[in-house]
Amino acid sequence: MVVLGPxxxxxxxxxxxxxxxxxxxxxxxxxxxxxxLSGDMTEVHLSGDNxxxxxxxxxxxxxxxxxKKHGIGAIEDFALLLARxxxxxxxxxxxxxxxxxxxxxxxxxxxxxSFVRAGxxxxxxxxHVDGSGERVVSGLRGLVVMNTTNSxxxxxxxxxxxxxxxxxxxxxATEVAASWRHAYFPTYWDKSHETARWALLAAFADTYxxxxxxxxxxxxxxxxxxxxEICEVRLSLPNKHHFEVDLSxxxxxxxxxxxxxxxxxxxxxxxxxLREDAPDAGPAWE
Length: 286
Ligand SMILES: O=c1[nH]c(=O)c2[nH]c(=O)[nH]c2[nH]1
Fold this sequence. Notes:
By secondary structure, this protein is of the alpha+beta class. It folds into two domains: 7-131, Roll (Urate Oxidase); 135-286, Urate Oxidase, CATH 3.10.270.10. Helix content is 24%, strand content 38%. An eight-stranded antiparallel sheet has the order 1-2-3-4-5-6-7-10. A two-stranded antiparallel ribbon has the order 8-9. The radius of gyration is 23 Å and the shape is globular. 28% of the residues are buried. Bound molecules: uric acid.
C-alpha cells in the first residue's frame, strides 16, 4: 500500500523584465519569478484528473500580465500580489509560494536608456500565502565584502591534525547570503531592505573580528537592532581565505601585503540570529 505524500508544483524561473519609460528616462526591473502551488491535488496524481490543476504555463502568463497591469515595485509586493491571486481565485489551491530574485541595473552614462548590471548582488524574497496567513522572507546574496585588518583567529581547539597557525591580523572576506523573516510587514519594503543591507555592511565593517562566527552574530544582531519588523536573520558566510604568500625564496619580505586568494576549499559559517519572542515561522523558510 502506498499513499501520496506532500506535493507541490509550479513554474520555476520566469524571467520578466519591465522597462518603464518617462521620455528617455527609462527604469528597469529585472526579475526571476518562481511560483509554487499546492492544495487539493490528489486526483491529478492518482487518476490523472487535471481539473484542479492551474497549468504552470498559466502561472507564467500571470507573472507577465501582472507586471503590465500592476507594475513591478518592491519584489515583496509583487510576490504577495501573485500569491494572493492564486489562493484567492483557484478553489483547489490552498497554498501559494512565490520566490523572486531581482537583478539590479545601474545607469550607464548620461542618457536615460543605457544600463550596466550592478555586480553579482541579488535581492531575494519568498512569500507564502495560505489559510494560516501571509509570511515573507526577504534577503540578498552575492554581497562580497572584505576587511584588510581587524580580524584575528586564535585560541582554537587543536588535535594531531591541526596545522593552522594562530593569527592576530588577517584578511576577512566573505560573500554574504542573508535572509530575514518579518514579524510584521513594513510599510515600505524597499526601505526595510535598504536598512537591513546597511546594517549587515555596517556590522561587518565595525566589528573587530575574533572569528567569522562572531562577525556573523554581530551582523544578525545589527539587523534586528535596526529593523523592528524583522524577527529572525539567517546568514551563510563562506570564509574566503587569503593566504600570505611566502616570498622568502626570492629574498623578499611579505608583511601582510601579497596574498593568495583561494577559491576552494572554504570554511562555511552559517547561523541564525532571532528575537526570543519571534512569532512562529510557519512555512516561511520552506
Ligand atoms: O573565523 C574562522 N572560523 C573558523 O571556524 C575557522 N576555521 C579555520 O580554519 N579558520 C577559521 N576562521
